[in-house]
Design goal:
heterodimer; A: Rossmann fold; Rossmann fold; 5-stranded mixed beta sheet; B: alpha/beta; Pyruvate-ferredoxin Oxidoreductase, domain 3; 6 helices; globular
């Protein structure tokens, strides 16, 4: 297929259509409202449902309902909207229903700003909602990857029967880049009869399915949480994605960075290379599961003197980086979060200060 | 090799569209591109700006501090961004609305009364097309015929305004070639 020039937000909407998602519920919020605008037009063309909820709280439970019925379903929002949906995300995780959430992050806390941010790392990877659950989090670095990851998110949500999140910053939603769409997703979940409340007439078995997150019997609750934990352990084994950049050199500093920020870092690395300074980058593409072993390995390379986490936040992922480095190297942090993304020159100054 | 072009002006001047047309044409020519808008609250009635990055390998940082060229459609844009342009770059100045100049001697100024030319072609709204075509003729980043086709394609659903935009396009190219 030929390349098309698309805004990240619109491309995410199109990716959902091509993944066979027929249900999109959302509430508009900058900087991701174009997803809703796009799907309001596109969903009826594929006999799908576009529905604007009365609030993000309502949208969260619409997602729960559709997911529980075994339908492929997605919503998109931005930071404050995701906060409102977080209760439902916790319920969806507990009830083990597949659903895709997209967070095109803006600055916070509170209403914050509308410009790009990575301030929801903690929210996405450590909770957001309550209880012992994890979200599988994919972090694209551009429009092409946003498309690929959105499509993949549906497969992963169904594989693990749980919520999956795409975590992008505002720029990824707003930027236009050429994109090539992969083949349409043709697969359907094979085990829906076992759990989905899709109506007896649609199912082969006579088993009555129940979607619930309330387990008053302590043993039952413990078992449910153990089942969730087993999935998270499987994710750690099977789903870690990352990219190394300039890591085949004898770099003296290792940058860990994701999303738009990692692209700025790549340009900084190219510019420093011309001056004879080698810096490596490890870019997590999944934030949970986190590339723990890979970061440890890259940071403990003999040439590597220290590690720096560079984020559009006040320092969130750095805590995971420190955990992975296990005290073997000094871990620094640099971040900005007003919405102005640091330019490559800024990053170079920070790195040179560490040499 | 990478070229970065900043388009800047008032919200409503068609800044984002000219930038998109350039990016789209470059993509069709096989370049890697990124179209990076400012989408801050200032867009509503205030300044709108947008950077197009064109390169022969995958675009790294979409954040550009010093663009290769600047297309300034109004005075605040020229004042704000003229000093950011890299030496030897082109600064397009819409002289219909900008009485001042960049006051730099290490760049090339392209001075075009884009609004006046557009009004003569049929509508002031085509000023962005005049700016785009004259800048493109001067900078020689993309094929002009392909760019013109892309402009035509953009207005395919509004056939009525194609001729005036084609006229605006040609006038823009002519003035760049004569300057």
């Amino acid at each position: 297929m030929a390349k098309v020039l698309m805004k990240g937000n619109e491309a995410i909407g199109e990716a959902a259509i091509r993944a066979g998602c027929k249900n999109y519920f959302a509430y508009p919020i900058t900087p991701q409202s174009e997803v809703a605008e796009y799907l309001a037009k596109r969903m009826p063309e594929v006999d799908g449902v576009f529905l604007q909820g009365e609030s993000e709280v309502a949208v969260g439970y619409m997602i729960f309902g559709a997911a529980g019925a075994g339908e492929r379903v997605m919503t998109t929002s931005s930071s404050p909207g995701i906060s409102l949906m977080s209760e439902a995300i916790s319920y969806i995780a507990a009830a083990q229903c597949p659903a895709v959430f997209v967070n095109i992050m803006r600055g916070g806390p509170g209403l914050g700003g509308i410009l790009p941010s990575q301030g929801d790392y903690f929210q996405a990877t450590k909770g957001g909602g309550h209880g012992d659950y994890r979200l599988l989090v994919l972090a694209p670095d551009g429009v092409q990857e946003a498309v690929e990851m959105t499509m993949k998110a549906f497969t992963l949500a169904e594989k693990y029967r749980g919520p999956v999140m795409i975590l992008g910053d505002g720029l990824i939603g707003q930027m236009m880049e050429p994109v090539e769409f992969p083949d349409d997703l043709k697969t359907e979940p094979t085990n829906k009869d076992d759990w989905a409340t899709s109506g007896m007439s649609t199912r082969k078995s006579n088993k009555r399915n129940l979607v619930r997150s309330l387990f008053l019997d302590p043993k039952e609750l413990n078992d449910n949480n153990l089942a969730l934990k087993a999935k998270y352990e499987q994710m750690k084994k099977e789903e870690v994605l990352y990219e190394g950049y300039n890591t085949d050199t004898d770099y003296s500093i290792l940058i860990v960075s994701y999303g738009t920020m990692s692209r700025v870092c790549k340009t900084s690395i190219d510019m420093m290379k011309q001056e004879g300074i080698e810096v490596g980058l490890l870019r997590p593409k999944t934030l949970f599961p986190f590339p723990e072993k890979e970061i440890f390995k890259a940071s403990t390379k003999e040439s590597c003197k220290s590690v720096i986490s560079i984020e559009m936040s006040m320092g969130q992922m750095v805590e995971d980086v420190e955990r992975c480095v296990k005290g073997q190297r000094k871990v620094d942090f640099y971040g900005e979060c007003g919405g102005d993304i640091p330019a490559p020159e800024t990053i170079i100054n920070i790195i040179k200060g560490l040499l | 090799m990478q070229t970065e072009i900043k388009f800047a002006g008032f919200g409503g001047q068609g800044i984002l569209l000219s930038a998109k047309l350039l990016a789209y044409t470059a993509m069709k020519q096989g370049f890697f591109v990124a179209w990076v808008p400012s989408y801050g609250p200032e867009m509503r009635g205030g300044t709108a700006y947008c950077t197009v990055v064109i390169g022969d390998k995958r675009i790294g940082s979409p954040i550009i501090k010093n663009p290769t060229h600047l297309v300034a459609m109004n005075r605040p844009s020229l004042e704000k961004f003229a000093n950011d342009v890299k030496p030897t770059g082109i600064i397009f100045i819409n002289s219909s609305l900008i009485p001042t100049r960049s006051e730099r001697d290490d760049i090339t100024e392209l001075i075009v009364p884009a609004n006046d030319i557009a009004i003569k072609a049929g509508s002031v709204r085509a000023a962005n097309i005049v700016a785009l075509s004259s800048f493109a003729a001067k900078a020689k980043i993309v094929d002009l015929e392909l760019l013109k086709d892309c402009v035509k394609e953009q207005f395919a659903s509004k056939a009525k305004i194609i001729p005036l935009n084609m006229k605006a396009f040609d006038e823009g190219v002519a003035i760049a070639n004569n300057s």
